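== Sequence and structure of one protein ==
=== Format: two labelled lines per protein ===
==== Data for this protein ====
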Amino acid sequence: MTPVGSKLLKLSIAFLLLDIGSFVPPVAAYFLRNCWIKGNNVMCKPTEEKITAVPRDIPSTANSIDLSSNWITAIRADDFKKLFVLTNLDLKSNGITQIDRGAFADLISLKKLNLNRNKLPALNDDVFDGLSNLTELRVSYNRIKVVGLTTFKALKSLTFFDISHNKLHSSTKVQLILQQLPNLQQLVITGNALTHFQSWELSNSSLQLSFLDLSQNSIAVFRIVADIFPNVTWLSIGSTIKHKMIWDIRNKTFFSRVSTLDISGLQLKSDDWEAFLQNFNSSLVSLRMNEMKRNLTKLIRISCTIPTLTTLQLRENNLKSIPANMFQLCTNLTQLDLSKNLIQTIQDEAFRPLKGLRILILHHNRIPSVPSATRNLPGLSELDLSSNNITSFGCQDFANQTKLRELSLYQNSVPALTDCAFKDLVRLQVLKLQTCKISKLNNAFKTSLPNLSQLLLNGNQLVVLKSGRLRGLKSLKNLSLHDNQIQVLERGCFMGLTNLTELRLQSNSILREKLKKGCFDDLISLRSLDLRDNHISYYDTEALSDPPFSKLTLLEKLAIPEQHRKGRTYLPRNILQGLTNLVNFEARNMQLLQLHKDTFKYTPQLQQLDISSNDLGDLSPDLFAPIGNLKSLYISRITLKSLDFLLNANLTKLEFLQARKNIFPVVSEEEINSMPSLVYMDLSGHSFKCDCDNAKFLEWVVNNTQTQVYDAYYFECNYPQSLKGTKLLDFDIQSCSLNIDFICFVSTTCSTLLFMLVSFTYHFLRWQLAYAYYLFLAFLFDSKQKNKQVQSQYDAFISYNAHDEPWVIGELLPKLEEEQGWKLCLHHRDFEPGKPIIENITDAIYGSRKTICVISRRYLESEWCSREITLASFRLFDEQKDVLILVFLEEIPTAQLSPYHRMRKVLKRRTYLSWPRAEGNTKLFWQKLHQALKTKENHGEEQFLLTVVNQP
């Protein structure tokens, strides 16, 4: 094979393999049953039905799976196969009673596993095999009584283990945990049934634990005779039992690093407390003594002698009053928590010793007024008086609190604020006044609180927001006024709030008519405005003369849905005028009948639009023309009849589409293609037309790997009636169309094979084909001439190549015409001008008695010469007439004549004339040619020799 032919063959084979390789069906669909995907996080929450087993269609690329709050009862060995990159698995709040051995074997990358709130009775041997990289394991609130000898041996990387609220009753179970987890740092065994905790039963060497929670057990004996916990810094041994614990620590240095200690509910002998606390004398920073019930005053005195103690928590101790000497020794405290007691009175001198106190929490007590004792704390930065019985704030209540930064006063009963209540709080940044029944602000915020950045006034009884009431809050950034009874926003009500970025006004009774002109104009820095659940409704789409948000040029988020008005509403066409930086707009559940096409022409940066739960019907493509940057669109429950608007809406950047519970029966291929960037589609609660109109959509749902189609398993058929209630995914689309992919495969394969065949034929058989082509043409013309009775006009037609013309004119023509008197036909002399050349050739051959072919290599390469000899050979063989005379001007090997089947046939059956061999005897050559011209068209005379040489 020549190099060219070899290259053609290799190229053809490559094309064929490419076509076969391209016909590979998609390997995975991009939708899950009861689950959805966000990035590489899979969440499987109950929708129409709870999940009873681990889904089999979770993609292998998932790195987080949330299967919590379902009805999974068992974890099977093959439930998590091939999830090699999974790092977080949440299985809490199911009914799991069994985990097969090897169920987690493929989870080689798992870091966190949550099995809380299930019904596991035991943790069997090797149940966690494969989890060599697990760092956090939670199995709280199960029924675990038994732990296997090799349960935890694979968990070499585990640092956090929570086995709280189970039924472990023996310290030997704890021993198994500690021995198999060499890198464990945090262990939580709260709420089990442990009765003893003794070091000799646990370990013979030091452990790495830094956090140990043994609270809410029934430990009667706590005995540590060896230094097995040298690194513990957080220790909880609180208890709810009534009997007294035996506390036996042989060396006071064993817990010398504990900085946080929780002894809530612990009972010891009265004389043992001092010795007990001396074990932590050198390092304790935070002490929790909640629900102590007795000896509290003594414990406070003892604990406050620890020089390092700075945080003291005393919750739920039924303290009704705080005497003056209770914290006399607590001079080093910086944080004191007295919440959830029954405190009614606090002596004025109670906190005087606490000169360094920074945080005071008095939440959820029965204090009737701001305690005077707090005025003795000039260094206080955080004060919590929420959920008390305070009815007013006086001018001296917060006197001297110049360093206070956060003040919580919510859930009290203060109908009106006094003008001077907060006058000294010059550094206050956060003020919480929600649910205090406030109906009047008066001038409390007119000049005070220059550094306040967050003000929570939600859940009160404000009706009117008057002009200038907030103008002193020049640093305010977040203002919550939701869940009040506000009806009127006066012009200038937000005067001075030039730094406000977030304003919450939802769930009020704001009337459109009372939305005063320019009431938002001062909020030049506002980024987020929430006006949901009000009475801001319009009766038509006519443009407003003074759009309410026109000065809010930096606003990025606006919500105005669910307006409380009976009947249908509209939005003025220029309601969003001025909002050039708006990114998120929500107008759901407003009973809107129409959106004007110019509604969004003022918001070119809009990326998220929610117009769900309205009566809009069909949407116009012009509505979306100005917002080509839209990425998220919510159009659920708007009685949408089709998605045709997408075809011309130019939403090429749309990534999220939620269109639940509409009435369009078909999603076309064109509609899908109009959203090339879509990654999430939610059409749940929708009924579809189950026929070939949805074939492309169904095929796309199953095969596409870009867009997640949420809840696709539950799409139902609504039409035709015979399929109503069946699943859309069960509809067979094979009858709708031929397999285009297979047709393309077959056609391209055939084309490739044809290309290979043509390449092969051209390289090896091109001359045979050329000859066959001319032979066919000659046959056509010969058949045409057979029945014609043409009288011979010439004695011979001379067929020659133009390069041999000198020999024909100089040698052949003088001898035959001038000397011998034959009448010859030559194409350059006797062909009729204007007639097709093939007809001239045919007429010349059939109008001559003989045809003399002057053969040379040039002759054999000539297209027309090949046609002439082929046509003449037809007369010789097919008409059985002696009409052909061959004259060779050159010696031509037989191999070069192989493409010319007819010529070889002539040479095998007849003699021929050779000019090169007649050089020594040209007289005999011309004599033989003369005799050949004289013979009649009769094969019976073939014995007459025509040449001076033998046949080849």
